[in-house]
Amino acid sequence: MERGAQNAAVVLREVAQSKQGNAHLAFSPERLIKASQFFLDLVVGPLLMGAVFGEDPKLLRAQIRAHVAESVPFFLAACRNG
């Protein structure tokens, strides 16, 4: 889990350094790993758990785009307000 959060932190750090990331206090160095764990829990976790519990891979693949489109903006809005 920690390794996954560290990999996600690399991506979130890049977002924080971009123009879009200026308002994200959650991406500060002292909060970045925790924010990455929340990101994985919200965005990756539900799809991963579906796979672990035997959901049809074709069904999961079909859900990815909608899930990401819904959960990523939610996560980023929470980071702006949190």
Secondary-structure element series: HHH
Class computed from helices, strands and strand pairing: mainly alpha
Indicate the low-confidence ranges by residue numbers.
none
Q: Can you give the helix content as a percent range?
A: over 70%
Alpha-carbon distance between the two ends: 23 Å
Output mean pLDDT: 83
Question: Would you count the extended β strands for me?
Answer: 0
Tally of individual helices: 3
What is the strand content?
under 5%
Round the Cα radius of gyration to an integer and report it: 14 Å
Shape: elongated
**In oligomeric terms, what are we looking at?**
single chain
> What can be said about the biggest beta sheet?
none
Number of domains: 1
Pfam families: TetR_C_7 (PF14246)
Organism: Bradyrhizobium commune
Protein name: TetR/AcrR family transcriptional regulator C-terminal domain-containing protein
